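Attaching the record inline, Q. Sequence:
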Amino acid sequence: MNEELKFETYLFIGSKKLVICVIEKKTFKILFKEEKLLDDHNEDSNLKKLDNFLAKNIFKIEKILKNFVKDINIILDDKEFFPIEISIKKDHNGNSISQENLINPLNVLKNLCQFSFKGKKIIHMLIENYQIDGKDYSFLPENLKCNNFSLDIKFICLSKNLIEHYESILKRYHILVNQILNAKYIEQFQDQQNPNIYTTASRIISGLNNNEISLVNKTLKSKGFFEKFFDFFS
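Structure, as predicted:
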């Protein structure tokens, strides 16, 4: 395994603090963590503080890891997240329902969201509810025949302009934004097995929530079932 694949770097950005954290992927051990408190709510000032924070810590991380930080996952605690809820219903003519049957309606909803909200980018795509022949399920039942089904989908979106701000700052350090995650969404999954937001985020990215649809870069080689159908970046 390449060294850069053994660890993940997370950048927490909130109104009150900045945190950069590196975890080992296999054990979820924290290898490095540094925090800076923010004392005001001035966006321009905090973007400058973010730049200085990265300048201070990226070299430290690379020295510890003996490797370059090539990408970062951003955990964002921000009121700018924009939830969109949409439903779709499909006839199924008494056939067994499977994951393959969800591909088309999920793509329809994703494309509708992207078309209708061009200034936003989808951060999380979640199946909130399966309704099969009028009965609600929190998961997709196996080998269940039905006449019709509907999906309740929640999109968590973010302004493309805000994303570009963070991308431009990280580019100065030759770092790409791998993924942006909603802090409030991640916190729902924290428990004894996932005690902090960084290890929880890593597990979210790895598929902790079976009802989240992964939106992945087309250049990635290894993909799960849904990921094969939901390439997001062109």
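The chain has two domains: 3-78+159-212, 82-158. The domain at 3-78+159-212 is CATH 3.30.420.40 (Nucleotidyltransferase; domain 5).

More tomorrow.
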